[in-house]
UniProtKB/TrEMBL annotation:
InterPro entries: Aminopeptidase_N-like_N, Aminopeptidase_N-like_N_sf, PepN_Ig-like_sf, Peptidase_M1, Peptidase_M1_dom, Peptidase_M1_pepN, Peptidase_M1_pepN_C, Peptidase_M1_pepN_C_sf. Its EC number is 3.4.11.2. Keywords: Aminopeptidase, Hydrolase, Metal-binding, Metalloprotease, Protease, Zinc. GO terms for biological process: proteolysis. It comes from Alloyangia pacifica. It catalyses: Release of an N-terminal amino acid, Xaa-|-Yaa- from a peptide, amide or arylamide. Xaa is preferably Ala, but may be most amino acids including Pro (slow action). When a terminal hydrophobic residue is followed by a prolyl residue, the two may be released as an intact Xaa-Pro dipeptide. Residues 533-848 form the Peptidase M1 alanyl aminopeptidase C-terminal domain. Residues 218-432 form the Peptidase M1 membrane alanine aminopeptidase domain. This is Aminopeptidase N.
Amino acid sequence: MKDASPQTIYLKDYTPFGWTAEEVHLTFVLAPSATRVRSRIRFAPNPDAPKQAFFLHGEQLKPISFAIDGTPVTPEITDTGLTCAVPEGGFTWEAEVEIAPVENFALEGLYMSNGMYCTQCEAEGFRKITFYPDRPDVMSVFTVRVEGAEKVKLSNGNPQDSGEGWAEWHDPWPKPAYLFALVAGDLVNHPGSFTTMSGRDVELNLWVRPGDEGKCAFGMEALKKSMKWDEEVYGREYDLDIFNIVAVDDFNMGAMENKGLNIFNSSAVLASPETATDANFERIEAIIAHEYFHNWTGNRITCRDWFQLCLKEGLTVFRDAQFTSDMRGEEVKRISDVIDLRGRQFPEDQGPLSHPVRPESFQEINNFYTATVYEKGAEVIGMLKRLVGDEGYAKALDLYFERHDGDAATIEDWLKVFEEATGRDLTQFKRWYSQAGTPHVAVSEAFADGTYTLTLKQHTPPTPGQPEKLPQVIPVAVGLLSPNGDEVVPTTVLELTEAEQSFTFEGLSAKPVPSILRGFSAPVVLERESTKEERAFLLAHDTDSFNRWEANRDLARECLVSMITEGAEPDTAWLDGLEAVIRDSALDPAYRALMLGTPTQSELAQVLHQRGVTPDPDAIWTATEVLKKTRAERWSNLLPHLAEEAKVTEPYQPDAEQSGKRALGSAVLALTSRLDGGEAAKAQFASADNMTLQLSALACLVQAGAGEEALAKFRAQWNGDRLVMDKWFGLQVAASGPSETADRAKALTEDPDFDMKNPNRFRAVMGALAMNHAGFHRIDGAGYRLLADWLIKLDEKNPQTTARMCSAFQTWKRYDETRRGLMQAELERIAAKPGLSRDVTEMVTRLLS
Ligand code: ARG
Ligand code: ZN
């Protein structure tokens, strides 16, 4: 959809739709290039809405016929919808339109993937299916008839009736159009069942293309666990007789929570030990849970408008994180989430794309399915829970479900249930939803006469459109350790509400060592002058496993920063302290694997930038390499022992215990490969009976510059498997050295199996390019140019995926003049493309502002 002058939509302009939609009947007569969609909708005047013209959204629809109460009418149709004169009271609207799913490469609305019909309607895709009030606050009961020769024809709700060449579905739960779904194709199912807490039997199905049957079992089990967990932890029961999940190869995002008919990117549901890694399994379990949990937080209670997106996404991410913690262990999940937050959300919050968790304006809502709305949105809920306590949270959630079931709700509704359930005033807390940017919290301390004082100062740097920030409510979890390592003050939550505030602890016999922001109790940047000795002390003694990990991360960061900025040698005192932790076999292998991780190169660039140093990607890469080599050499005797400890002798299971061991093993292999030129990796590659081991070995080989033979073998082995081949494409770019990254990526785009229309394949190559920090930022601009070339090409087909990938440039302003100039030129080249989509126009405009 080309749009010369995109419109900006504002939260403050919200007005309800003038009618309610009481019933919706849809009939689809499927054909790849000429699907007919007939709609019959009963509208009644909405007493709560101001008078307005009757407007229905509609885009790229070929109009066939329209009628009101059976009489043909001729609406006025534009690029974005139609207006029509309508009777005063209620009326029945009928329309017939034609659409061409086979030509739909935007993957929004009704489209085709490998010959199968499927839909994606969130956020505003339903308007590409038929004319409709395509807004989340218009909820209706849908009955859907699908006509076509396909063996399987699915829609939302319960199956109602079917016959030769047709099937009818009825969804009794009123829903907005963004939750509509239809699937038709020659699919096969992996069946299952679940008995709910009140004893109702629910039929479960995972629908896949023939050939993928062997990749369903894990997803089905994850679904059952999710259903059980939501009953046990939130008291939420499933509400239809059937729950269908469909795997689709061409999909813009991870998955979609359509009522009773979740549609998944096949990468987010299909898995077998041979083809999927431990990380894939964990992600699949989390996404299945996420989409299932949306049935209550999203579907039964939906959003009034798209500005409220975090109402369902932040909450559902928070819930799926709780689920993963319960399934796999809290400390590892928390650390992984914080790594992810710092890797994806912090750069967003600290650059030109920064926006509040609840944005106040947008041009294209698809551009706001961001780490800020999702992950920071979940952090905000975590803080809320910390502030009101577990019991207060449980009471508030019960009230939320009771009061708002069936509603299209707002953040105000959400906060009100907390205020009522707990008696707490959340006026100031609400700033977490309206103020963009990452708060910085500076810490200073004093000790006299047994009294220890912590002074906390908060400051949020300006963000686009928000030059001044007000103080936020920041829960800072603190514990105090005595110099001998005993915990003298257990974890206490300090509530920082002012710009500067002091907190005292009395009756201490010696100056304690503070452990601050335990469990990462708020999404902030902590600024604290602290000695290496103190950090080493926390690394050895902190009882909070998150902060123990964090102490190590701080030491790693400081070590690398001194290497980069002062040419210092690696800090051996730190390496010895870390070695003690790594050797401690009482600690979970997964935790030790996380301890072995180092800050990413882009995180280092961010830290340098925050300290006023222009990051040099080559220097960052070199320091990271030197550190790895140093560790490998220093620990050469330890590595074989760790490798032994990391061995799994039982048959493969993607559970936390085995995955933790393999994670440790792969960290060890990466170090070993620095010493043996890839010998151990070669052996592991040859003997691997699961994808986790095979892929980690391949990465080490490519990294060591010895991967060609293994890459060829891998391709020959997995040629027929699209998901595994995505790994083949991505890994070569991810693991290549900085001088060759862009050339490798370019060569891969010329491979006959590169298909830009498949978002997974496109992202495998281009995403890996953007993530290879030093490779992407090669000083001659080859990385920038290649990405921009492909973004320009893809925009004609798939604006949504193109727009998301523009964020690869979001940190452009922090680099040196040469790189900055090169990136700016590429952004301007994209912006100048005639007919650029609204999605990408908005992104590059924000990036360049
Ligand atoms: N609601 C989906 C989820 O997070 C994401 C769908 C986003 N789709 C989009 N076109 N922006 O579970
Ligand atoms: Zn979601």
